[in-house]
Amino acid sequence: MMVDLGAFSDEKFDAKKWINMAVKSRHPQDALEKHLVDLEMKLQLMSEEISASLEEQSAAAILRVPRATRDVIRIRDDAVSLRSSISSILGKIKQAEGSAADSIAALAKVDTVKFRMEAAYKTLQDAAGLTQLSSTVEDVFASGDLPRAAETLANMRHCLSAVGEVAEFANIRKQLEVLEDRLEAMVQPRLTDALSNRKVEVAQEMRGILVRIGRFQSLEVYYTKVHLKSIKQLWDVFESRQRSNKLATEKNDGERLASLNEFQSNHSALSLLSWLPSFYDELLFYLEQEWKWCTIAFPDDYKTLIPKLVIETMLAIKPSFISRINLATGDAVPETKALAKGILDLLSGDMPKGIKIDSKHLDAMIELHNVTCTFARNIQHLCSESEMQVLLDTMKAVYSPFETFKQKYGKMERAILASEIGKLDLRGAVTRGVGAQGIELSETVRRMEESIPQVILLLEAAVERCINFTGGSEADELIASLDDIMLQYISMLNETLKSLRAVCGVDNTFDSAKRESGLDKKEGAHNPRKPDLISNEEEWSIVQGALQILTVADCLTSRSSVFEASLRANLSGLSTSLVVSVFGVDQNQRKLSIDDENANAKLDVKAALDMATVRLFDAPEKARKLSYLLEQSKDPRFHALPLASQRVAAFAETVNELVYDVLISKVRQRLSDLSRMPIWSSAEETSAFHLPSFSAYPQSYVTSVGEYLLTLPQQLEPLAEGISSDDANTDEAQFFATEWMFKVAEGATAIYIEQLRGIQYITDRGAQQLSVDIEYLANVLSALSVPIPPILSTFQTCLSTPRDQLRDLIKSDSGTQLDLSTANLICKMRRLNLDQ
Hints:
With 836 residues, the chain is mainly alpha-helical.
């Protein structure tokens, strides 16, 4: 049996627990007493062994103490001796430091004097050399050795910089400038010939001369000048072909007077769109050949020479390019093509009336721009080895002819959309006479509903044009244009709604709050339609047409919401593509740092130099505003079209008001004279027989209203079915129909109650008849599951109660069953004083 002594060292050692554990670990066949005896014996033996070991080790430790004491004393003596030696050394170092400082100061003064003497010697040498060079420079020029002349002039400039601003050498400084210009003039013809005939060695030699005299910029100028002439010839081919077409047209016509019109109609046979790709291809091929040659002739400069050539080329052809773009856009539309005018002329407003900017104008420009984008990508690939700023300037130059148009993009888009919106015909049918309003209403509503997807398609096309033409850099102008156009369109819808009120016969109604509360005091003045002149079928056709207007509001709300969500998605996508422009670039690393939620990403800026980035790179303020807009678009609560969203909601409310007015108009007609009906104040007729003094049947005015309310659900069913195009919307459609049913029923009840309040006096006979009428209306409301208002129940109860029992009924009720204010009003109608 092994005994573990580790548990004895634990501070929380429990002897009883340890013994119990030892007992549990015994073999089942061993006796408990024998096991405990063996355990005690082992513990005693181990205790004796531990005591003996401890005694032995203690004795050995005591013997080692004197030896350790002697070692400590020896080490202390050595430390004292070492401290004394170090103090002596430090004293000697301080003495040496004092004498050395004086020596170093003296040496510094000597070195300064030596440096000044050497500088003076060199200056004297340079001055002497400058004088000698000035006297011999003409001989060097006369020899025709241009490299030697360049070296001489370089030495003269070095000497002048060494002697500084000395009055004696002012003439030599002027002479040097004249000589440098003279040498450059001698280099120019040789360099031009070398560039034109691709003489590598001569070009390199001339380049070295210009660099030696600090005229490297002249190399760029001469290189650009030589090649720009050839490129201009490529560009002028278009106009030469146009002139050829014009001459051919004049010759074939035989009449110079008619040739101009014929040319204007046929000169687009060679359109800019068909010619521009070939020009770009030839120009790109030319530049590629120059790039290859420059890598050999100017291995240190080709990365700047070719981009410089592209920049100067685009700068030279830019005015002509803009003019050609303008005319090419005009060719897209026959009216502007006939006048030889373009989009810039349309924007200036100097055009005949009736000729407006069209989407085809901008589409034609976008096609030209797409061709230029392809060329720009090729140029970017060709000049990919150039520095970032050089490449950026080159790309800006390529896109520069379109910048004039991009700056006016917002104005163009507004004009296009306004023109397209103006073409919509929302009132397709002319105003019709009595009996045909339903046809006019149905036709107008159909056109309103069909116009909504057309407008959304126009807006979507505008978004696509903005992205294709500006890369999204004019997103703020786009949003402003879309918002304005939506407001214009909704205003057209509202104007149409106002005209439809007259068609529906509800153009003189009070505001909705008064209608719902029943505050109308002159119901007869509400509806100008004559009930006798309009058939029942025509009335229901007007009701059905008015209900269809709800689909217009629903379609506008849903379509505008979907479009706005799509617009937010497009803006959110632009926030990634335009991130280079928005956040800036590290010019040293040519990398862009992006703060991302998950990680810090790195984008290659050169790969992201699209048209929008190029535009925004040097427009930090515009980039900042655009960045804020794009960041906002990521929020689902963001309204890309804030004003339009509000107007859409207001339009839906206006539609609801119109539909409500139409649905409730028949009720107003039937109840308009209710409070003034003579039956309420009619006296009881005397008869020899005991007959009822009132009709047991409700009167025609209330049965007409009841029948109308009971028929209304059938009119709502087609509309509900149109909304519920699938099973998922069935519940929504059912709720829609029920909501309108309740709204009309409650409105009719409110009007009825208000008319009842207007009765000044009612006899017992009138009270009994009115009670029957109210009971009928209450049954209709119950059939429609519309709760009966307490006021109406109070009228019914108080009017059906005999006059001599009414006082007791009211006093016995504590307000739980009757509306006390209404009950008091009924007492006044029946000439009953409750105080008696």
